[in-house]
Write a structure and sequence with these properties.
7 strands; alpha/beta; Nonspecific Lipid-transfer Protein, Chain A; globular; two-stranded parallel sheet
Amino acid sequence: MSKKLSFPSSEWFEAVASRMTQDLAAYRELGSTDCAMVVKTQDGAGTTQFYEVVFESFGVKSVRSLTSLDEAVPEHFVLESSLDVWCEMVENIQANGAADLEHTLNYLTFPDDPMLVSGPDQLEIDAFYRYNESLQRFFDGSSDVATTFS
């Protein structure tokens, strides 16, 4: 039995990133992904967490925890929502093997509720929409990552 990883955590995102290398053909069919995504969560107590995932070509170049958005690479977009929404999305992916229609990034970000896409400029925000299918496949890769929720 594999060790359960806490969501959200750098270790959890790294485990999902490793799924990309295990299923490289699935990502190659979607084309190269070159962007930086910052996942922003806020729990009921007001604690905010930031995780940066930098995608390069057909994989993840780096994953790191940030203490603020000021630490993010300049070219990034932010996916922001409550921790509850994030956890529900991951739980749905794990229950179904992939997100059902109501738990996809596309559905959750339209129209900026309950998940908001933002960034330093419109070009970076557009990267989310350009790579949306690859980003969804990345999160769907969490379907077999043993996860606990903080």
